[in-house]
Design brief:
Blueprint: E1 2-5, E2 8-14, H1 25-36, H2 42-49, H3 52-58, H4 64-67, E3 76-80, H5 88-94, E4 97-102, H6 105-114, E5 121-126, H7 128-131, E6 139-145, H8 151-155, H9 160-169, E7 172-183, H10 188-192, H11 220-229, E8 235-241, E9 249-252, E10 273-274, H12 279-288, H13 292-295, E11 298-303, E12 309-315, E13 324-330, E14 336-342, H14 348-364, E15 371-372, E16 375-380, E17 383-389, E18 394-395, H15 396-405, H16 409-423, E19 432-433, E20 441-444, E21 447-450, E22 456-457, H17 463-477, H18 486-493, H19 497-515, H20 521-528, E23 532-533, E24 543-547, E25 558-559, E26 569-577, E27 582-586, E28 592-601, E29 604-605, E30 614-616, E31 619-620, E32 626-629, E33 636-638, E34 648-659, H21 662-675
Parallel strand pairs: 2-5, 3-4, 3-6, 4-5, 6-7, 10-23, 15-21
Antiparallel strand pairs: 1-2, 7-11, 8-9, 8-11, 9-12, 12-13, 13-14, 14-17, 16-17, 18-20, 19-22, 20-21, 24-25, 24-27, 26-34, 27-33, 28-29, 28-32, 28-34, 30-33, 31-32
Helix pairs in contact: 1-6, 15-16, 17-18, 17-19
Length: 676
């Protein structure tokens, strides 16, 4: 028995008439969206509804985990556990035939409606054990994306995962590949305070699932033991980052991350998390000690032959016309190449413009000491991409970091002066690379090469602006770089406070230009109102945020070193740079009452009654300097940009903080509102 939804066929021969697995009402919402909205509208729907299930099931970023995998035309694909179709569309575009299997009819209907125009998709609804005997043994690819961990539920035997994998592999043709994407039970994010994805509990995988449950994730060694038991000898590990669900970057054993690369760790969209330590710093140590394969958050395993692709990065958190994928290829002879692909029709023009940018930058820097990495436009079978030489060497950002670590400011400035001299060559030429950041320059002894120049514009730009942006981005990438004496750099460039403020506004405009009308994932995280909680005793540690023109960022916040003269009393002395527009102080992680006893900026009192200078998200208490916060995220804001700033400033705060039950805080806030 079959049903047809558009061009998609639902095979119901093994469907028992009842969904044995359901997430409840949210599936009705997803079905309504799939029926009434085009896929191009999903991003808008995600932003409007601000719902984790809607984001999880419908985000186009979910496709990244399979989009990079090369397939020959006409490839036959089996997707087990297809669910609501997060990756089905990507497989349909790449393959000749896609056969899906899923237990739930409602989820299969969601999948069918959202991909109703795909004439190469069939969805088998029912239990895998019942459907499996009817499946052929000629698939080129079999995908288990977020599925293998449920092997016990599928099989229910003594060694369910070994049994599950053995049965799955029977359906591969000779030379075919199976692809498994799964969380690492020892992923660093779980040590740092993220809950186990399936159970919603802390440290479950780390504690080896001591409390039981029907889901199991594995370490790399655990997966390898299963492969060995199944006679699998040929497999290759890849490492999706931050994880496989919303992957932005994919590493491999042939191309592992470098120090400072793993900075995108605050993607806790599904639920609140603890914040136990700095994951970026921890990852740096893990990378240095060659332990990334042990502590990567997720794995993607290719069973079968490997690919030439060793690394890929997605830039699809952008406006459609700038969505691209970058990959590094290395063939069996060791030849390496960098490629950039458009991710949609709208982005093809962006790809075509890069070879033009190469020629223009080559003309500008001819006779100078800055090399532009060669770019060629390639076309084959209707596909286009840009090809770049893969350059060995060290990033300029790494060399600068080493100087900071050694507290070698003279060495830092010497490198920076070289940067200004080399990039500022021929300044009147009407071409400029706006993205000449330190991470886009490879240094090979005396040879400096620009490896990425996708944001090249046909106009002359002041080298001061380009250098300021390079420093600005450098500081944003890593809090540990705050030790840099920015005032000295600004003096080197001759940049005034007014110019710095203007350049920060330019950066905001540029980011808006790149992302277009879409909200970035960091903004969506804010819409979901997830919390990163610092688990400490009363009084809470105080968290500080700085807005340097680009808004507040959880990743770039820090916990202040407080003094506690008495119970519930907090005293802070915060060093605030001259480029900080707003300083935000979170006195607690819970609802509370705060009484401010002292608040000064460079020794001068900050007027609490002037909302142009100071404001909060709490309710003021009449005739006091107190505020009640019924929300679990109390904030105090000081607009330092409206005060007399210096290059270095001191913000001094002395306050009493008393936590309250949320209901009590709400009552006090309501009473305060009536009095005011």
């Amino acid at each position: 028995m079959t049903e047809q939804i558009g061009k998609v066929t639902l095979n119901l021969n093994h469907y028992g008439g009842e969904d044995l697995y359901s997430d409840g009402k949210v599936e009705d919402e997803l079905l309504e969206i799939a029926k009434n909205y085009a896929q191009a509208e999903y991003q808008k729907v995600i932003e409007e509804r601000a719902s984790w299930p809607v984001l999880y099931h419908l985000s186009p970023l979910r496709e990244n985990i399979v989009d990079w995998i090369p397939m020959k035309a006409g490839a036959k694909v089996l997707e087990i556990g297809s669910g609501c179709g997060a990756i089905t569309g990507a497989l349909s575009r790449k393959a000749g035939e896609v056969v899906c299997v899923d237990l739930s009819k409602k989820r299969s209907m969601i999948n069918a409606y959202r991909h109703s125009g795909c004439d190469n998709v069939t969805i088998h609804v029912g239990n895998f054990k019942d459907i499996e005997p009817d499946l052929p043994a000629d698939f080129d690819y079999i995908f288990l994306i977020g599925v293998f961990e449920y092997g016990q539920s599928y099989m229910g035997k003594e060694k369910p995962f070994e049994e599950f994998l053995s049965i799955v592999l029977k359906h591969l043709k000779k030379g075919g590949r199976a692809v498994i994407a799964i969380e690492n039970k020892y992923g660093l994010k779980y040590f740092a305070g993220c809950k186990e994805d399936h159970l919603g509990t802390w440290f479950s995988g780390i504690e080896n699932y001591a409390d039981g449950g029907g889901v199991r994730t594995f370490s790399r060694n655990g997966l390898e033991k299963i492969f060995a038991a199944c006679g699998v000898k040929k497999y290759h590990f890849y490492y999706p980052y931050p994880d496989y669900k919303f992957m932005t970057t994919l590493y491999s054993d042939a191309y592992l991350p470098g120090r400072g690369e793993l900075s995108n760790n605050m993607r806790y969209f599904d639920r609140d998390r603890l914040l136990l330590f700095d994951e970026r710093a921890a990852f740096d140590g893990i990378v240095e000690d060659a332990l990334f394969s042990v502590f990567a958050n997720s794995y993607e395993v290719i069973i079968g032959d490997d690919f030439d692709i060793k690394y890929t990065k997605y830039s699809n958190d952008r406006a459609p016309e700038y969505r691209i994928r970058t990959e590094i290829r290395r063939d069996k002879k060791g030849n390496a190449e960098v490629r950039k692909y458009p991710l949609c029709e709208e982005a093809k023009e962006h790809i075509r413009e890069m070879p033009v940018a190469y020629q223009n930058l080559l003309a500008r820097y001819q006779g100078g000491s800055l090399i532009i990495n060669k770019c060629e436009l390639c076309e084959e079978n209707g596909k286009i991409w840009d090809s770049f030489e893969f350059l060995e060497g060290r990033l300029l950002s790494e060399l600068l970091d080493e100087c900071l670590e050694k507290e070698d400011m003279e060495g830092f400035c010497a490198l920076f002066r070289q940067y200004v001299e080399r990039t500022g060559y021929n300044p009147e030429f009407p071409v400029a690379d706006f993205d000449l950041t330190f991470g886009n320059i490879v240094v090979q002894e005396e040879v400096w090469s620009v490896i990425d120049y996708e944001w090249t514009f046909g106009k002359a730009m002041d080298v001061k602006e380009l250098a300021f942006r390079a420093v600005y981005c450098y500081l944003l990438e890593d809090k540990r770089r705050d030790k840099l004496d920015v005032s000295r750099i600004l003096e080197e460039l001759g940049i005034t406070d007014a110019e710095a403020a203007y350049y920060r506004e330019q950066e905001k405009d540029f980011q808006g230009f790149v992302t277009g009308k879409n909200k970035a994932m960091a903004e969506i995280l804010g819409l979901l109102k997830r919390r990163a909680i610092q688990p400490i005793s009363v009084p809470d540690r105080v968290q500080v945020y700085e807005d340097k023109g680009g808004g507040f960022s959880e990743q770039e916040s820090y916990f202040a070193y407080e003094m506690y003269p008495n119970d519930h009393e907090v005293e802070l002395e915060l060093r605030v740079g001259g480029d900080v527009e707003v300083c935000r102080i979170d006195p607690s992680m819970e609802s509370c009452v705060v009484r401010i006893e002292e608040l000064t900026f460079n020794g001068k009192e900050v007027p609490l009654g002037n909302k142009k200078v100071f404001y909060t998200n709490g309710k003021p208490l009449k005739q006091t300097s107190g505020f009640v916060f019924s929300a679990k995220d109390p904030n105090l804001y000081v607009k330092t940009g409206s005060l007399a700033r210096q290059k270095e400033n001191i913000l001094h705060v002395k306050m009493q903080v008393a936590r309250l039950p949320e209901s009590v805080a709400e009552d006090i806030a309501a009473a305060a509102k009536k009095l005011i």
